[in-house]
Design brief:
The structure holds two protein chains of two kinds. Chain A is an all-alpha fold. In chain A, 73% of the residues lie in helices and 0% in strands. The chains are: A mainly alpha, B alpha+beta.
């Protein structure tokens, strides 16, 4: 018994050491980002390296703002990401509800066709999309970035899986009570799906927040740049503005931290909720 | 309140390749204010019939009328019916108040105050006024049941439909709720269709009982009708607890010869005319221990129920059940004889299973003899 307890204690100790190591390794780049954002670039490559934050954050930010109008880029990113997330949530939840709770011709082939589009790499779609956006006159506009990806196949899949768990009797009861089909979706299905919607909103927001390749193609005006595009502008052929990049990055990850920290409980619940048959 | 006329109702499921007939040519007239119970084994079509009346299933053929108005093609929300589901179907994200008031918010232009007033009225009727602020997950099964009832009542519908609403409750609560439901229905006077697989519940609750099997309506009648005068062997076997004892007997003149040495001679053999072999049925409660009974049995199990005993016996290859007084306690393994009266014998055609003879004794009692005289 004593040797079992000792083995268990050793196992626990080893696990904690391992986990602590992982945490430290993950946190080092984040900590370095904060330190680097607050020191002048001249001190980046000193040895031994600076371990404590400095006081240069505001001067670095000023330089960043003069270089790429970062505030504008952040505004563009917020507008695009929030609008995209809201629109995509509506479309994906509606499509998911239809696939989960209604019978119509070609339902299954249509669903699998939508899922199949997940395997298409973005590189395959960029040129035809760019041509379409140009013909529509949408280049350098928010629409160009938001609309093409609004009906997200992964979002439709997640919503469909989660909405399958809604008991049919709940919807039938609402029909008997006088609800229209839209009211079934809006008043009954959506409120029961809040954790799943929260989880999906994080995924959608993140996807759009850090999108680079496609916005690079359709947004040529620097005034319309999102954060990733603005950051790319700081990497020149002859000079890399590390200090400004770090300031920009520290600002860029802050909304992500806030969103994820406030909604992480829904994220876990939402990802798992459609996985077990009720 | 409304009459319901179901005419030649047929419901099929499945694609062109494989059709399943869930309801086959059901004809039924339900009177205004009547409490009609659909009963039958699982898969017999009772819930499908109810759902067709509700408008939750499209009808393959036939028609459904409320007070002479054809509602066959009307959507569920347009039919003025309220339904209580087996799992109650309470909206989990709404409080009890909002659950009960939901139908009024959807279908009327009443103010919030008016709706709340009506909600409180209904909640008081059901004894759940203190639960109005709770969520469904905080309620017990019986409380959820009452909330589901409240949501149905508040609309003042023409018809109540109930799909096994008591099946998720424990036995004691089920018995209590059964009485409450009957009282409520009697008070409100709403035409009610009730589905259950429990024949005891059906017998206890319904003004009339509709027995279904394999999608077909077997018999409609009062509890007494279906118990005493079943139209066929299925109804006789389904109604009554414990189930009726049945076996095949050879007919020789006025005498029946059955398995295990069973022998009985009819005083009135006219019922046996035209039959060489016949199916015989005797209810457990009509059997008694009788040395000259003519129905030999070997006792295998004795169940003491307190107020009575159930004797399980074999007669040849046939298993028998008898319900006897609690003081009758033969030993297991003992050979006994059971007796019964001719009027309690059921006979069924061996080919069609239709009834040839049912119970014939008088049942009506002049209750006035029990009224106290001042």
């Amino acid at each position: 018994m004593r040797s079992e307890e000792r083995n268990e204690a050793l196992w626990k100790f080893g696990s904690y050491i391992f986990l602590l190591t992982i945490v430290v390794l993950v946190m080092i780049p984040l900590y370095w980002m904060i330190v680097a954002a607050t020191i002048p670039q001249s001190e980046f490559f000193t040895w031994p390296p600076r371990l404590l934050p400095g006081f240069e954050w505001f001067s670095n930010f000023q330089a960043l703002q003069e270089n790429v109008d970062f505030v504008r880029s952040m505004g563009n990113s917020i507008i695009i990401s929030v609008s995209y997330t809201a629109l995509s949530l509506v479309l994906c939840s509606m499509a998911g509800f239809a696939f989960a709770k209604y019978e119509f011709r070609f339902k299954e082939p249509l669903f699998y066709f939508i899922l199949a589009t997940l395997v298409l790499p973005i590189q395959l779609l960029i040129i035809p999309l760019f041509l379409l956006i140009t013909q529509l006159g949408w280049t350098n506009s928010y629409l160009a970035v938001i609309l093409p990806w609004a009906a997200n196949p992964l979002g439709i899949f997640l919503m469909r899986q989660n909405m399958k768990a809604i008991p049919d009797s709940l919807l039938e009861s609402a029909r008997m009570d006088g609800a229209t089909e839209f009211q079934l979706y809006y008043k009954i299905a959506l409120p029961t799906m809040l954790p799943s919607l929260a989880a999906l909103s994080i995924i959608l927001f993140l996807n759009q927040w850090q999108a680079f390749l496609y916005p690079l193609v359709v947004l040529q005006d620097p005034q319309m740049y999102t954060i990733p595009l603005a950051l790319a502008d700081l990497v020149g052929a002859q000079r890399v503005y590390f200090d400004q990049i770090m300031v920009a990055t520290s600002l860029a990850v802050t909304p992500i931290f806030v969103v994820f920290l406030t909604m992480q409980q829904y994220f876990i619940k939402g990802i798992l909720s459609g996985s077990v048959k009720q | 309140m409304a009459t319901i006329d179901i005419t030649n109702l047929r419901k099929e499921f499945g694609d062109d390749g494989e059709q399943i007939v869930a309801v086959d040519d059901v004809n039924l007239e339900i009177e205004d204010g009547e409490f009609l119970v659909f009963v039958g084994p699982s898969g017999c079509g009772k819930t499908t019939t109810l759902r067709c009346v509700a408008g939750l299933e499209d009808v393959t053929d036939g028609s459904i009328e409320f007070d002479g108005n054809d509602v066959t093609d009307q959507r569920a929300r347009d039919r003025d019916v309220a339904m209580v589901f087996q799992n109650y179907a309470l909206y989990p994200h709404m409080t009890v108040r909002k659950n009960i008031g939901f139908p009024l918010r959807l279908s009327t232009k009443q103010s919030t105050e008016a709706i709340n007033e009506r909600v409180e009225e209904v909640a008081e009727m059901l004894g759940i006024e203190e639960l109005l602020g709770d969520q469904p997950k905080e309620l017990s099964g019986g409380q959820q049941q009452r909330v589901a009832l409240g949501r149905a009542i508040i609309r003042d519908p023409e018809v109540f439909l109930m799909d096994e609403p008591l099946s998720n409750l424990d036995a004691k609560l089920r018995s209590t709720m059964r009485t409450e439901l009957q009282e409520l229905q009697s008070e409100l006077g709403v035409t009610t269709c009730y589905v259950t697989h429990d024949q005891t519940e059906a017998m206890a609750m319904g003004d009339r009982i509709a027995v279904l099997n394999e999608g077909e309506l077997q018999q409609v009648g009062t509890a007494s009708d279906v118990y005493r005068s079943p139209t066929n062997e299925f109804v006789a076997g389904f109604i009554g607890s414990p189930s009726i004892n049945t076996f095949t007997a050879e007919v020789e003149g006025a005498t029946l010869h059955g398995p295990g040495g069973f022998e009985y001679t009819f005083d009135d053999p006219s019922v046996l005319e035209g039959h060489d072999r016949i199916r015989v049925g005797i209810r457990p409660e009509d059997m008694r221990l009788d040395a000259d009974g003519g129905m030999p049995g070997l006792v295998t199990v004795v169940e003491e129920m307190g107020n009575e005993n159930f004797l399980y016996a074999t007669m040849g290859e046939i298993d028998l059940t008898a319900r006897v007084e609690s003081k009758m306690h033969p030993d297991e393994g003992m050979s006994v004889d059971f007796g019964f009266d001719e009027e309690d014998i059921y006979l069924f055609d061996i080919d069609t299973q239709q009834s040839v003879k049912t119970k014939t004794s008088e049942t009506d009692v002049d209750y006035r003899q029990f009224v106290a005289n001042d």
